[in-house]
């Protein structure tokens, strides 16, 4: 294994951990030795991720649902409703001394902006932007006090370049750019880095559900990708996990795309 990539003894929180990309991030962090809290509004989805990790490795699962092994990290499922500030606060208070915070959760409604319902904007603002702001505000002081921390915000290439039918989603996810860069400056003296990862077209259940209503969508998307394939959750997770390690200690305030070449800088 590459030097400086172990995360033994580090406590990580991954929001949206029950989804495809979130589950892949959790798997990579656990493989590096971290104790990962798989956080999701769906307790059953988070628990399924932990169960899957336990099946993939010779782990022990205790009655409380925490799984671990001697040579890898731990994983446990916890429920959190990111649309509810009170529940976010309770979650943060119970989490413990978090070293790594991956803001992966997100919700979207695909529809032309002029036909969109402002009520749906509220949910996207609450989950996609307000929740990362609040959760970071609660957990960042501990990182700074201990002199080490990693913040990774999972945004979207649609927020960087625009995405038809996702005006409100792109707007809320774009807000993470300014937040992450500001935190990169403010928390640097405390040994905390802050970066944004932007997935491009990625093969997830969400995309497949959208394609069900728009036959041929994936084929059209792939034709415009230089690498001629969709991304996978593992493609995104690899970069997220790397940014959480000591080898990425000199990378902060950056926005990085995982898009197969759709977005180039």
From TrEMBL:
Looking up InterPro entries in the UniProt record yields: NAD(P)-bd_dom_sf (IPR036291), Sc_DH/Rdtase_CS (IPR020904), SDR (IPR050259), SDR_fam (IPR002347)
Superkingdom of this protein's organism: Bacteria
Residue ranges of the TM segments: none
* Pfam families attached to this UniProt entry: adh_short_C2 (PF13561)
Family membership noted in the UniProt record: Belongs to the short-chain dehydrogenases/reductases (SDR) family.
Q: State what protein this is by name.
A: 3-oxoacyl-ACP reductase FabG
In which organism is this protein found?
Nonomuraea longicatena
């Amino acid at each position: 294994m590459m030097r400086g990539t172990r995360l033994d003894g580090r406590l990580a929180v991954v929001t949206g951990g029950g989804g495809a990309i979130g589950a892949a991030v959790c798997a990579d962090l656990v493989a590096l030795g971290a104790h990962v809290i798989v956080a999701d509004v769906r307790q059953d989805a988070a628990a399924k991720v932990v169960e899957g990790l336990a099946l993939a490795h010779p782990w022990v699962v205790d009655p409380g649902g925490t799984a671990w092994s001697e040579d890898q990290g731990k994983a446990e499922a916890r429920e959190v409703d990111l649309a509810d500030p009170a529940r976010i606060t309770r979650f943060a208070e119970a989490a413990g001394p978090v070293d790594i915070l991956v803001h992966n959760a997100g919700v979207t409604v695909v529809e032309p902006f002029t036909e969109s319902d402002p009520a749906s904007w509220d949910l996207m603002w609450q989950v996609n932007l307000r929740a990362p702001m609040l959760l970071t505000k609660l957990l960042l002081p501990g990182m700074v006090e201990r002199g080490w921390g990693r913040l990774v915000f999972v945004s979207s290439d649609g927020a960087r370049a625009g995405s038809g039918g996702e005006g409100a989603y792109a707007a809320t996810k774009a807000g993470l750019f300014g937040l992450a860069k500001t935190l990169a400056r403010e928390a640097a003296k405390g040994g905390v880095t802050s970066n944004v990862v932007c997935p491009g077209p990625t093969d997830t259940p969400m995309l497949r559900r959208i394609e069900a209503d728009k036959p041929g969508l994936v084929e059209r998307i792939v034709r415009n990708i230089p690498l001629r394939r969709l991304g996978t959750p593992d493609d995104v997770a690899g970069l997220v996990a790397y940014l959480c390690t000591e080898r990425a200690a000199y990378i902060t305030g950056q926005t990085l795309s995982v898009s197969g070449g759709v977005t180039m800088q």
